[in-house]
Amino acid sequence: xxxxxxxxxxxxxxVWRRVIPLSSILGWWGNWGMNTTWWxxxxxxxxxxxxxxxxxxxxxxxxxxxxxxxPEDEFQRRDVIDLARTVIDRATIAARYxxxxxxxxxxxxxxxxxxxxxSAKAYLKLVTAATEVLALHTDYSLDESYDRLCxxxxxxxxxxxxxxxxxxxxGYCRSQQYxxxxxxxxxxxxxxxxxxxxxxxxxDRAEVPKAFFEQxxxxxxxxxxSKGIGPLRPTLPRLRREYLRVLGNAREAAAR
Length: 256
Prior knowledge:
flat; mainly alpha; 71% helix
């Protein structure tokens, strides 16, 4: 950290010591994008409560430490965003499992509707933060990556934007790119939460059919693909105030 961060070394080291254990709870495949698009009939199956609690309790502290760091250069700015992205990712996954656990409890009359609504609100707030944090750096934009390829190389493929998108959304590579998060992950999460809340209001405690998740997966996926990455390009100002706002929202939701 001393070689990498100069005067900010001690602050960054404090963050890294918290983020590495948090990150290593899941493998490379365990990102919130994969998690958000895989509901199917197993939407109520999650990890054990102790693991979820560890994720949620470690997140707010790490985000608070990150908010206190004033990056000295672009290198450090990129690292604070990457670290924040990692923390928010893990908190979002844990919040999703807690929502599913609470909804399952409501279906069996052991959890109140109010508790499910609180979990739903926290989950959507984290999904939104997980999307917005990706907008804060060009590395997470497919469309901006396309621009760099055109500028720095001899781009001959006439429809390479669609190639980038196809590669990024397949089941093996699906990860953290802003255009996919904004165009697919976030709409998918909103649709599922809306269905849970609709059933709460109707007092419908029957299992959500697998067909709903399959149809929602397809409709949100198709809507994103039809737009393409150009219209989904990030527009959020890359300013410190936006970074702090995103971290603040995520910290509040992860702390509940």
